């Protein structure tokens, strides 16, 4: 089948271009000093919401290098969890959420993170992006796409899709993006969106995807 979207070329270029840029913690194959499991991926993702990657990584390391299971987490008080994860955004709310989720997993799921998208969404505080991240980077399942602001904006700029919300983007991309690219999609587009295809005034003059981009809704650029 003809690749009218140039997926192969675009993903090849992004893998090469982003090769020297550190991946977000949740998308790395191995974690230093933390056992990578669906549970640690879930907790790290919750910590990352509205928080810079460096702060997320440091907080994840402090908490999860010792307390990497629901059973260990519920031994901690909320104030102790707050101490470990500060200064992530909304650290008090997240500390309560982390303990509540750990308890729910023990009571309802035998201490295991469910390998089921809808059951993940039933956990308090877990939205579509987090559930998708756990399915992709925790369980390594194809057929799921975590969509953040970069993953929504860039496919629209490229001209792949015409969507207004992340949920619309997720649905549309699942219908056109071959599964072989699902595992790399989120971290490549996040890295690309943070460094080159920025929300405001993207770096079009140095963009390696110039020949494949329609620059939809791009005004001022560099």
How is the secondary structure organized here?
Blueprint: H1 7-17, H2 38-48, H3 53-64, H4 70-73, H5 78-85, H6 91-109, H7 117-121, H8 128-138, H9 149-158, H10 166-176, H11 182-195
Shape: elongated
How many whole angstroms does the radius of gyration measure? Answer: 18 Å
SSE arrangement, N to C: HHHHHHHHHHH
CATH-derived topology of the largest domain:
Endonuclease III, domain 1
Number of strands: 0
**What percentage of the residues does DSSP assign to strands (E)?**
under 5%
**Poorly predicted regions:** none
Number of helices: 11
| Overall number of structural domains | 2
Q: Cα distance, first to last residue? A: 36 Å
From the coordinates shown, what is the CATH architecture of the largest domain?
A: Orthogonal Bundle
- State the share of residues found in helices, binned by percent: 40-55%
- The top level CATH class name of the largest domain: Mainly Alpha
Give the rounded overall mean pLDDT.
Answer: 94
CATH superfamily of the largest domain: Hypothetical protein, domain 2
Based on secondary structure, the structural category is mainly alpha
Largest sheet: none
Structure description:
There is one protein chain. The chain folds into two domains: 7-21 and 143-212, Endonuclease Iii, domain 2 (Orthogonal Bundle); 25-138, Hypothetical protein, domain 2 (Endonuclease III, domain 1, Orthogonal Bundle), CATH 1.10.340. It is mainly α and 222 residues long. The chain contains eleven helices and no strands. Helices cover 52% and strands 0% of the residues. The model has no long low-confidence stretch (mean pLDDT 94).
């Amino acid at each position: 089948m003809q690749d009218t979207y140039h997926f192969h070329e675009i993903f090849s270029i992004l893998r090469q271009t982003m090769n020297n840029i550190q991946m977000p913690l949740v998308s790395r194959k191995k974690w230093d000093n933390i056992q990578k499991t669906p549970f640690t991926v879930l907790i790290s993702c919750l910590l990352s919401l509205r928080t810079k990657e460096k702060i997320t990584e440091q907080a994840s390391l402090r908490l999860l290098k010792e307390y990497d299971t629901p059973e260990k987490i519920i031994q901690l008080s909320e104030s102790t969890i707050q101490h470990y994860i500060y200064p992530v955004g909304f650290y008090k709310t997240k500390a309560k959420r982390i303990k509540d989720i750990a308890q729910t997993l023990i009571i309802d799921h035998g201490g295991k993170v469910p390998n089921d998208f809808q059951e993940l969404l039933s956990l308090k505080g877990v939205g579509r992006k987090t559930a998708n991240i756990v399915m992709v980077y925790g369980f390594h399942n194809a057929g799921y796409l975590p969509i953040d602001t970069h993953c929504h904006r860039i496919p629209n700029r490229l001209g792949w899709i015409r969507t207004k919300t992340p949920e619309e983007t997720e649905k549309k991309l699942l219908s056109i993006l071959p599964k072989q690219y699902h595992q790399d999609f989120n971290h490549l587009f996040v890295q690309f969106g943070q460094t080159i295809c920025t929300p405001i005034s993207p770096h079009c003059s140095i963009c390696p995807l110039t020949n494949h981009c329609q620059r939809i809704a791009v005004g001022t650029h560099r």
